[in-house]
Amino acid sequence: MSPELKYCVPGIASPELHLIPQSKLAQNIQSITGFGIICATELAAEIGTISRFASEPALARYIGMAPLDNSSGVYSGTKAGKQINRRAKAAMMTAVARHYYHTPQSKEYYLKKRAEGKKHNQAVRSLGRHITRVIWSLVKHDKFYVERVNLKESA
How many domains is the chain partitioned into structurally? Predict the structure, then answer.
């Protein structure tokens, strides 16, 4: 955090700074590009422990990254779930939007979803579903996020 920001807004990030080392989940989440201290700690606090969830889709439903099927007859579509943790969803949406801004592969995926006709929030939620899989995998395998280097650009 920059000294200017600490001076302008004293104590805004200080509570979260001491929580990150205490939570392995928060450390794993914060290792993902775009997931800052506040989003990582809030998401980790709302999730609690990953063992609460039987599967990755259950985690995705809890944090609002899994749309529900709303198809009927000829109509085919999805809707947002009502039984979600709104704070976790807000933190996830903010962090995912920051993530695609800094990660070329995610930006490409986001633009692909927009080209398919999805609105901004739908595209971010779709990317968030993939990031939920990443979080699940990171926690289950006790690893930190490592951004892939595009082999085409490095050659």
Answer: 1
Dist. CA 142–CA 144, nearest whole Å: 7
Beta bridge partners of 22: none
Distance from C-alpha of 29 to C-alpha of 20, rounded to nearest angstrom: 10
- pTM (2 d.p.): 0.77
- For 22-60, write each residue's pLDDT tens digit: 788 888 998 998 898 888 888 998 998 899 999 999 999
CB contact set of 56 (below 8 Å; sequence gap of 6+): 132, 133, 136
Give the length of the chain: 155
DSSP state of 75: B
The 3-state DSSP class for residue 67 equals coil
Q: Hunting for tokens 């944090």 — which residue is that?
A: 63
Is the CB of residue 129 less than 8 Å from the CB of residue 109? Answer: no
Q: Which domain holds residue 14?
A: 3-71+81-148
Whole-number Å distance between alpha carbons of 68 and 120: 18
Residue 32 is assigned to a structural domain of this protein: yes
Hunting for tokens 């976790």 — which residue is that? 88
